[in-house]
Design a protein that fits this description.
The protein is built from seven helices and seven strands; from the N terminus they run H-H-E-H-E-H-E-E-H-E-H-H-E-E. The radius of gyration is 16 Å and the shape is globular. Helix 4 links the parallel strand 2 and strand 3. It is α/β, with parallel strands linked by helices and about 200 residues long. The protein has a single domain, classed as Rossmann fold (3-Layer(aba) Sandwich), CATH 3.40.50. The protein is about 35% helix and about 20% strand.
Length: about 200
């Protein structure tokens, strides 16, 4: 069972726009899941949260220095340095999760397909990503996010991650949504404030 108090405590004291949405990933973990992959793990916080619920957790990142720091802090996780688009994993996972990584991968269709291929039949793929605002609704959600940021930054200890950033994101919300729906039948789309969206897809068994 996931110790949600540990997840919440970590996000409270290491809070930022990414850790805020770890709960979206954790809530999507299916009962009985026995393996998980954290794509673009960075400082390893999502991998550590997944390890509270799942015994077999693998975390991939392209930055060796960031990965080494994560490995030094969190145990019980298999750390792999490499590009998820080409690294050889030779297996699939019950949970494939990615937070703030998809916009680093320029070929959106190839990236979505790669994460889907790494998901075991009956498993779940969860992507929390950033996208570029292009519609009135997108900009309104951005205003909501600005208010949320002000509130949370006053009630949390804002933590700066050490992973590289890409801004502005190369893809719009509409592009991500439409591409995901075309490639992942039945995918669920959610758009949040604080400039994030989520794709949640249960792979057919």
């Amino acid at each position: 069972m996931t110790n949600l108090h540990d997840v919440e405590d970590r996000s409270k004291f290491r809070w930022n726009h990414n850790t805020h949405f770890h709960r979206v990933v954790m809530d999507a973990v299916p009962a009985g899941a026995s393996s998980a992959l954290d794509v673009g793990t960075g400082d390893g916080l999502l991998a550590a949260d997944l390890r509270l619920a799942i015994k077999d957790v693998t975390a991939v990142d392209i930055d060796p220095e960031v990965l080494a720091r994560a490995a030094a802090e969190y145990s019980g996780i298999t750390w792999i340095c490499g590009d998820v688009m080409s690294v050889k994993l030779d297996r699939t996972f019950d949970v494939v999760a990615s937070v703030a990584t998809l916009h680093h991968l320029t070929d959106l269709s190839a990236a979505i397909n790669r994460l889907a291929d790494l998901t075991s039949p009956g498993g779940v793929m969860v992507v929390v990503g950033l996208a570029r605002a292009t519609s009135a609704r997108d900009h309104l959600m951005g205003l909501v996010g600005a208010v949320q940021h002000q509130w949370y930054s006053r009630t949390r200890s804002v933590w700066e991650h050490s992973a590289p950033t890409v801004w502005p994101p190369p893809h719009s919300y509409r592009q991500v949504r439409e591409r995901a729906r075309a490639l992942l039948p039945g995918v669920r789309w959610r758009q949040f404030g604080m400039w994030r969206y989520a794709l949640i897809w249960n792979k057919p068994a």
